[in-house]
């Protein structure tokens, strides 16, 4: 007897080890391995193994738990085992591989039964809760009745689902109660040898039916699909499904074969399988297994990991079994459930406990709930009529998308708002005041961003906070109506706060020390954005895990999907560029030597020195040839507003310039023209004038080639940190409204509050005539800056413009105002050209529009990416310059579709001027590479656009072109993220 018992124990251990092995095999993604097999049917074996497992395991558990009625405490034990295992497993996984952190996985870890964590684990918990009722029912029915009921349910499950049950979600575990019931029934059913043999034969036949039938139906499916006769309306693997009767017959045969051993197991031994099931089913398992490599053979690596995980499962269950259920809160809950047999009473008690907890913590819960609503509202405010851009080409319903996909991004925003509340509450000790402050900041910030998005096509950046000093010029942009509405809202909120603080004061629970700790933790939380963009840091991955994904290239899309708070925080510490391989002072010196040779070669054929000439870089605010707008149509009697500028095609270098902005970003294009560097090289959207230039004591520009350089802007000079940056550029003069240099001939057109282009060019002419020698002038206009509020009287374009993109009367009115503005620009340019042609010194004018006006929705840029990032430019050398070696024009074929960063090289070529090594690099980049610009798709990286306006795949560049691009990137890194070694390299920039 003892000998038989000992043998039985050995068989039990062997069965446990074999079962564990086959379950842990499924940690790996075996479909990839099976798909490479020679025989097609093997491709479906991994699915068969998994489906058989989630059917057989509940049957085994049902057999073990068939001996007596179970208490709900057993379900609690399972839940505790599963959740504890998941928490430790996930924590270890995130430490080893933080890039896979995801809050949806954390949610599944804490609530595995209602998420997609494990259908098998959830099924066992559901089954154990149902076990007392199944026990009573099966004991009331005869064996024949039980067999009939279970058989009918099995067939009905298949018939009603047509084999389409996917078992991907934990709630499908409810179906596994059927197999648990089968296990309970078969465990107590006496089966003779004849019935067992018939069952084994039926199981074997079913196995071959599934093995042969599934690939057969798969072939039928694909033949239908290829022939165009459907194929998508039925599940080609319906035989290989837990609801399949053939799968059940196969699994039932295996169960009956090992039934004698199965019924000898105890509940404690079944609990051991919970960690095993978690390892097998957890969504992270396949990724976790790939982290470890021990040998060069993937098969051996898998075997080693399976053995290790078997040992871990045994050890982990030993620890849990010994300590987990003895922890006082868990022990009390288990003891209560052991005493209480009525599940309804358990639910009532749990509900009472929950409601008591809610009442006790109602202030915190309501505060959190309010901040979540506030966060959600801030997201909705940024939407476009409750539509959100999920990509530059597609938008969907904002409410559905945000609640279904960006839930945790809203939660993260809520966390930051609550942290701000904790700080305010610690300082003021007044609940309503703190809450109102957070609410005003949250909604006010969202509205402010929406206003700027509507006006400029971009949100508020951290670097623009200092622009508050320009509030007098900002208010007219916002509009009087909006300003009045904001002031009225603030008065109402202040009055409401005073009323609530007096009539319904609230004091949160907890001492001042506790509030102080929370305030300190909140302050620390606000330091985390300093690491949001640092690749491979834990904070970086946690931030991504909350669905806070910033693309940095499509501002409208970013603020809509991340919300105004997170969008702002994402910009606090931008990572400008990745350091190129081999970056060092030595590398920059080598590039200096390399391009010094190129410069020598270029300079052999060039005769002029640029410092003896007058060069004007003229940024024409928001200037675009109106005829290049997508779908635009003018009535026949509407005059051509830009006739003169279009005529420059015949007597200047003329074409399309690729802009890195849309509706805004003026300073970025200005930076490109002055430095020759390119916005497309950056990892994210930023403003170099604010985030890069101030980091250097001196910054090289085309102006350094001249003895005298100045900037003129007939507007406020503090925008984009221009005053400080021009000092770093070593400009001798910056004339702007309010500067020490007078803006002459100030003239406004109609009701516009901006100085006209006539004023801009009058000041440019004044500066040209103020000096005898060569000089550089950076001339920036303001006339065509948004808004476009119908401020030109007798506008002949009103009612004369149409097009598919101009659907509303407001759009058409704004467009008519804008077009009239370009007509004024055209006249001012014509006058200026005539004036400089009369001057007896070489003058070259580089004219360019910085970006499209923000009249059309930015969403259209997906449909017309190149067109809506293309403005007009021309490079004109006056008669005197042409008489002294300057070309009238460069080849249009070689110079259409250029970037603003190309203008230095193009201007030097047109004026036949000698170049520095750096300018030789720019010349080679312009000559040998397509135009470099930002990625119009909104992702990181850049686009290459050829002279025809076609996007070019960077992979198609030759090795020589790739090396040139790498050299250019190295130099840009040096002057944006690096240590400016180029400034110390003799003669590189000057």
How large is the radius of gyration?
Answer: 37 Å
CATH superfamily of the largest domain: Alkaline Phosphatase, subunit A
What's the CATH C level of the largest domain? Alpha Beta
Strand order of the largest sheet: 7-6-8-3-10-11-5-12
Terminal Cα separation, in Å? Answer: 100 Å
* Uncertain spans: 1-8
Please tell me the CATH architecture of the largest domain by its name.
3-Layer(aba) Sandwich
- What is the overall silhouette? elongated
The computed structural class is alpha/beta
In CATH, the topology of the largest domain is named Alkaline Phosphatase, subunit A
Tally of helical segments:
38
- Report the count of strand segments: 15
Tell me roughly what share of residues is in helical segments.
40-55%
Count of individual domains: 3
Largest sheet descriptor: 8 strands, mixed
- Report strand %: 5-15%
Mean pLDDT: 88
Description:
The structure is a single chain. With 990 residues, the protein is an alpha/beta fold. The chain folds into 3 domains: 2-39 and 48-192 and 263-326, no CATH class; 362-570, no CATH class; 613-913, Alkaline Phosphatase, subunit A, CATH 3.40.720. Helix content is 55%, strand content 7%. The protein is built from 38 helices and 15 strands. Strands 7-6-8-3-10-11-5-12 form an 8-stranded mixed beta sheet, sandwiched between helices. A 3-stranded antiparallel beta sheet has the order 13-14-15, with no helix packed on it. A hairpin with a 2-residue loop joins strand 1 (387-391) and strand 2 (394-397). Helix 4 (73-96) packs antiparallel against helix 6. The longest helix has 35 residues, at 193-227. It starts with a helix and ends in a 16-residue tail after the last helix. Mean pLDDT is 88; it is low at 1-8.
């Amino acid at each position: 007897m003892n000998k038989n018992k000992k043998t039985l124990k050995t068989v039990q251990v062997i069965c446990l080890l074999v079962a564990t092995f086959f379950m842990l095999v499924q940690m790996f993604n075996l479909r990839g391995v099976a798909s490479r097999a020679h025989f097609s049917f093997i491709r479906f074996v991994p699915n068969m193994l998994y489906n058989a497992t989630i059917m057989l395991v509940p049957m085994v558990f049902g057999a073990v738990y068939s001996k007596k009625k179970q208490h709900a405490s057993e379900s609690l034990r399972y839940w505790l085992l599963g959740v504890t295992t998941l928490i430790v497993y996930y924590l270890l996984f995130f430490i080893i591989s933080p890039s896979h952190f995801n809050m949806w996985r954390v949610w599944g870890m804490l609530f595995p039964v209602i998420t997609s964590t494990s259908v098998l684990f959830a099924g066992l918990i559901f089954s154990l809760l149902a076990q007392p009722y199944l026990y009573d029912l099966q004991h009331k029915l005869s064996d024949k009745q039980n067999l009939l009921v279970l058989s009918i349910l099995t067939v009905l499950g298949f018939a009603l689902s047509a084999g389409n049950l996917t078992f991907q979600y934990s709630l499908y575990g409810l179906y596994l109660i059927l197999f648990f019931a089968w296990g309970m029934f078969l465990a107590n059913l006496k089966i003779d040898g004849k019935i067992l043999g018939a069952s084994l034969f039926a199981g074997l036949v079913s196995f071959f039916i599934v093995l042969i039938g599934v690939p057969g139906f798969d072939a039928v499916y694909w033949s239908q699909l290829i022939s165009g006769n459907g194929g998508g309306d039925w599940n080609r693997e319906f035989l290989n499904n837990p609801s399949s009767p053939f799968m059940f017959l196969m699994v039932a045969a295996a169960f009956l074969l090992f039934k004698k051993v199965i019924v000898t197991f105890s509940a404690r031994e079944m609990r051991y399988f919970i960690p095993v099931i978690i390892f097998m089913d957890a969504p992270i398992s396949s990724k976790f297994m790939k982290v470890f490599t021990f040998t060069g053979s993937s098969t051996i690596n898998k075997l080693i990991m399976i053995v290790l995980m078997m040992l871990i499962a045994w050890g982990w269950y030993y620890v849990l079994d010994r300590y987990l259920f003895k922890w006082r809160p868990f022990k009390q809950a288990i003891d209560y459930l052991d005493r209480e047999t009525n599940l309804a009473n358990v639910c009532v008690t749990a509900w009472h406990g929950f409601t008591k907890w809610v009442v006790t913590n109602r202030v915190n819960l309501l505060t959190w709930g309010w901040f979540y609503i506030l966060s959600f509202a801030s997201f909705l405010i940024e939407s476009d009529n409750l539509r959100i851009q999920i990509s530059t080409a597609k938008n969907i319903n904002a409410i559905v998308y945000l609640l279904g996909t960006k839930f945790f991004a809203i939660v993260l925003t809520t966390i930051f708002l609550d942290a701000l509340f904790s700080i305010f509450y610690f300082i003021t000790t007044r609940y309503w005041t703190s809450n109102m402050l957070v609410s005003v900041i949250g909604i006010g910030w969202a509205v402010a961003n929406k206003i700027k998005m509507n006006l400029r096509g971009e949100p508020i950046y951290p670097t623009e906070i200092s622009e508050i000093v320009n509030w007098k010029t900002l208010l007219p942009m916002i509009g009087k109506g909006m300003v009045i509405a904001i002031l009225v809202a603030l008065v109402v909120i202040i009055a409401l706060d005073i009323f609530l603080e007096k009539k319904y004061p609230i004091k949160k629970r907890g001492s001042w020390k506790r509030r102080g700790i929370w305030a300190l933790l909140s302050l620390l939380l606000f330091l985390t954005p300093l690491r949001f963009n640092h690749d491979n840091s834990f904070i970086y991955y946690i931030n991504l895990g909350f669905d806070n994904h910033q693309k940095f290239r499509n501002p409208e899309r970013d603020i809509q999907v991340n919300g105004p708070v997170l969008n702002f925080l994402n910009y606090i510490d931008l990572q400008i560029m990745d350091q190129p391989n081999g970056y060092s002072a030595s590398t920059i010196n080598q590039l200096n030597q390399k391009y010094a040779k190129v410069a020598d070669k270029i300079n052999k054929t060039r005769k002029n020195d640029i410092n003896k000439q007058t060069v004007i870089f003229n940024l024409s605010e928001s200037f675009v040839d109106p005829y290049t707008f997508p779908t635009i149509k003018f009535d026949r009697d509407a005059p051509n507003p830009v006739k003169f500028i279009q005529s420059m095609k015949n007597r200047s270098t003329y074409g399309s310039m690729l802009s890195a902005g849309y509706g805004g970003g003026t300073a970025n294009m200005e930076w490109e023209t002055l430095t020759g560097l390119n916005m497309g090289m950056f990892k994210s959207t930023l403003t170099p004038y604010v985030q890069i230039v101030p980091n250097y004591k001196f910054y090289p520009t085309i102006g350094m080639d001249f003895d005298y350089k100045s900037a003129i802007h007939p507007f406020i000079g503090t925008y984009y940190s221009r005053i400080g940056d021009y000092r770093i550029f070593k400009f001798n003069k910056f004339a702007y409204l309010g500067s020490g240099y007078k803006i002459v001939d100030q003239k406004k057109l109609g009701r516009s509050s901006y100085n006209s282009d006539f004023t801009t060019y009058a000041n440019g002419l004044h500066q040209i005539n103020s000096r005898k020698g060569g000089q550089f002038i950076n001339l920036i206009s303001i006339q065509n800056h948004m808004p476009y509020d119908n401020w030109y009287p007798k506008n002949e374009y009103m009612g004369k413009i149409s097009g598919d993109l101009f659907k509303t009367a407001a759009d058409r009115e704004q467009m008519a105002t804008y077009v009239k503005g370009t007509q004024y620009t055209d006249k001012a340019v014509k006058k200026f050209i005539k004036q400089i042609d009369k001057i007896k010194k070489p003058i070259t004018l580089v004219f360019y529009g910085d970006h499209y006006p923000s009249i059309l929705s930015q969403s259209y840029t997906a449909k017309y990416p190149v067109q809506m990032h293309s403005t007009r430019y021309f490079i004109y050398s006056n008669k005197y310059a042409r008489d002294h070696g300057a070309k009238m024009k460069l080849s249009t074929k070689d110079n259409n579709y250029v970037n603003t960063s190309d203008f230095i090289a193009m201007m030097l070529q047109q004026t036949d001027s000698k170049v520095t090594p750096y300018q030789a690099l720019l010349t080679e980049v312009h000559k040998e590479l397509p135009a470099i610009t930002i990625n119009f798709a909104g992702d990181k990286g850049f686009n290459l656009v050829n002279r025809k306006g076609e996007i070019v795949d960077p992979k198609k560049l030759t090795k020589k072109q790739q090396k040139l691009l790498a050299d250019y990137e190295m130099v840009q890194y040096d002057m944006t993220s690096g240590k400016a070694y180029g400034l110390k390299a003799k003669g590189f920039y000057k």
